[in-house]
């Protein structure tokens, strides 16, 4: 596959995350009632989880993800081991599909959907390109996909922890109310 497809991954990742960083706080505040009415079981939990993030706390969490995505992408290129890239890419692609599913359920704008659709063609091309151009072995594909998905889930917990800790620090120390 063209090396450009691999090297573009951190850029594509950040284009998607910028939408989330910029619009999450506004959206979660504006759509609180709709969210809680539409999903009475989980809506209050989602609101509670994301309303506590400051924009900079959320951006710090995304920065951690960007460092990992970038480091693993360029490590894969350096080592010529594209299963590393595929693992992270699979996690990201699942993340995009989940966002599209959230949008379908929510039935209105969520601060990830525009760039989810914009980056979806890159994800599709990445998968087809990887399978077509690389000398792949099915066991390694399966292992890479599992490792990437588990890594994504574990890191999601870590970044929420980091983002909330920083948001709490920021609210109590830097900008006390």
Descriptive report:
- With 177 residues, the chain is an all-alpha fold.
- Helix content is 85%, strand content 0%.
- It is built from 8 helices and no strands.
- The longest helix is centred in the C-terminal third of the chain and has 37 residues, at 138-174.
- It is globular.
- The termini are far apart.
Provide keyphrases for this structure.
mainly alpha; single chain; 177 residues; 8 helices
Tell me how many strands there are. 0
Content-based structural category: mainly alpha
The amount of beta strand, in percent, is: under 5%
Poorly predicted sequence stretches spanning 5 or more consecutive residues: none
Order of helices and strands: HHHHHHHH
The value of Rg in angstroms is: 18 Å
How would the global form be characterised? globular
Distance between the termini: 52 Å
SS element count, helices: 8
Number of domains: 1
The averaged pLDDT comes out at 92
Helix content: over 70%
What is this structure's SSE topology?
Blueprint: H1 3-7, H2 9-30, H3 32-38, H4 43-51, H5 55-79, H6 82-106, H7 113-133, H8 138-174
Helix pairs in contact: 2-5, 2-7, 3-4, 5-6, 5-8, 6-7, 6-8
Task: Give the gist of this structure.
Helices cover 85% and strands 0% of the residues.
